[in-house]
Amino acid sequence: MISTIIFDAFGTLFEVAKGGSAKYVIEKITSCGHDVNEADFLCEWKKYYKRHTGSDCAFQTERDIFISRIRMFYERYGVNRSAESDADRLLAGAYARKPYDEAAEAITNLRQKYRVFIGSNTDNDVLDAVMKNSGIDVDKVYTSENLRCYKPTPLFYEKILSENRLAPGEVLFVGDSLSDDVYGPLHAGIQSVWLNRADREIPDGVTAIRNLRELTFIF
To answer: Is 70 helix (H, G, I), strand (E, B) or coil?
Structure first.
């Protein structure tokens, strides 16, 4: 029986613009006169992140990964800019992310019956700042920084279960990423719901909703 619901943060409870950071870096490179294939760049940008958040990698914060990724591209194209400054400029925008319209209401209603956690791939200070400005309150918050690992590494989910003495069958994970919030939890024995705001095709075996209010009709 479900006793605890874990929500992803960004793209699930809080709005986020997809690909904005990578496009900012592309703009800085092209402004120096270099040609960049955007599709290839975005593919490598994403792969770099996945390589540095896997279970076989020494843990780094998202900020550190962000800086090293920007620095790699600037060095490749001979761009004379500070990767640290540009990373911090971009990360500052994360502090201003707003909750989706239905998020606070949905969380408030669900907390009448369930414990509600957040489980997010992000740094502590980013999520702390967003939570303070959101009007959203949950029982516990877990980040990749305080767990020292990233979704969909199994250890991410296992640490939350262990700390709260929860069996996998007592937990539901909700989020917008198929890999991190649906298949990752499922591999750990945790039920999951895909938040499919863009109304994409739903894979076989996946339970999906279009907004958080629909959760009350499923559980």
So the answer is: helix
Give dist(CA 192, CA 203) in Å, integer: 13
Q: Identity (one letter) of the amino acid at 62?
A: E
Q: What is the identity of the amino acid at 44?
A: E
Q: Longest Cα pair distance anywhere in the chain, in angstroms?
A: 59
Distance of CA 14 to the CA centre of its chain: 10
What Å distances lie between residue 67 and 1, 47, 62, 198, CA to CA? Answer: 43, 15, 9, 30
Distance, in Å, from the CA atom of 122 to the CA atom of 143, rounded to the nearest integer, reads: 6
Q: What is the pLDDT of residues 174-196, one digit of tens each?
A: 999 999 999 999 999 999 999 99
- Please give the single-letter amino acid code of residue 148: R
DSSP 193: E
**Which residue do the tokens 């950071």 mark?**
21
Angle, vertex CA 64, rays to CA 62 and CA 66, nearest 5:
65
| pLDDT at residue 29 greater than cutoff 90 | yes
